[in-house]
Amino acid sequence: xxxxxxxxxxxxxxxxxxxxxxxxxxxxAFIDWQVDLLNEHTDLNAGVVIVRPIDSAFxxxxxxxxxxxxxxxxxxxxxxxAVSDARLIRSVNRELNVYQEYEEFLKLAHNPDMxxxxxxxxxxxxSYHAGDKFEDAPAVSYPAKLTRLLFExxxxxxxxxxxxxxxxxxxxxxxxxxxxxxxxxRYAQEWELPAAFVQWLNDANTFCSTLVDRIVTxxxxxxxxxxxxxxxxxxxxxxxxxxxxxxxxxxxATLAQELRLDKFPxxxxxxxxxxxxxxxxxxxxxxxxxxxxxxxxxxxxxTVGESMNDAEVCAFVEKTIAEEIIPVLDLPRxxxxxxAQAVTSRFQNPYIQHQLLSxxxxxxxKFRTRILPQLLAxxxxxxxxxxxxxxxxxxxxxxxxxxxxxxxxxxxxxxHWLVRxxxxxxxLGDKQITEQQLVEAVLGDSGHWGQDLTQVPGLVAKVSEDLxxxxxxxxxxxxxxxx
Length: 483
Prior knowledge:
Number of domains: 2
CATH superfamily of the largest domain: NAD(P)-binding Rossmann-like Domain
Low-confidence stretches: none
CATH class of the largest domain: Alpha Beta
CATH architecture of the largest domain: 3-Layer(aba) Sandwich
Shape: globular
Number of helices: 20
């Protein structure tokens, strides 16, 4: 069986117009996949050069396959049908190792057709590294490498206003474009680069903040042989991902035309502010996950997919989103409802086995950031506590007992909470405290919650009541009241 290469598998090749910092699975199954679709269906005509941002030999370079690889997109489509689609991606031309090919890296700036820079250098990638200098070949941090490359372009084209770039980071930090721009300007100042360069940076270049959303599971190790057999070639860079994807870019409206999204619409939104979309994702997708985990696990389920195939648990999740999360979010109702429908079908994806215990990591912080804002907002709007979000808090407290059907399971959280819960549950077991006192101790931890939740009218009483039902009748009976 042949390995992928452009000689044995000839096809379209595109002029280099995109620089991509990061060679990982996510960008290949998200950005490069979208570019490939736009290349096929429009005149975008953009080839990608991947720059490996760190000095590592693993994984091997995509250039060993001439930039070719296959995405396997699997999940439930908009009609709720299970689909699996393999696509040979031709948008990537080559991969550069900036540590071994530094001059070649700088030459990317000399190409007049270069227009876009995408990146995913992990959450830690957009950060300041004190030792980075202009003459380093290369500098350590991604922002310093980018600053040097931008200066090369500025110098080569004598500061031409039409030779700036659209810079679109995909790292999972808030306002990633703003953060990256700040660091580039910081290096420009530290390195004492000319004022004209700083002016060009601000005027000729566009830094866009983004929100990216797609579960990319990466190389499908267990099924690789079977997939390669059906494809008819060997591919060491197979990348599996879910059917759903969303790309929100905070940038100028003209970007839609420049990316040819007006000719082939993808699930890409060009917006003035990503904040409400971030809040939507955190509240609906992440919030539903966090509410689901303790309820489903204590009901005897182990994966997200199993949970969504359970009529009661599925109804609990859907009603939580529809009746208690969506009403307090600040986006058009139809947008929120279609996003919520996509979320529930993503949870039902038969190709992804998402273990509830793995999602339970740092559950206390997740509840504070993902659910508490909606719980408090709901109470302020209606004057009553949202019953399911309040129940989810009781379920979370029950989950931290660390026991299901008389068997223990591992808890993963901050040491403070692991110790505190151990003490509280031991005290309840010895009848030194009541359920309500346990709840008061948890909700009164203002260092964690940012406020004393025992002061929220009715919250202690309602959480205590739910906790008592969970402990005395079991999770099945307890959650049945909210389905």
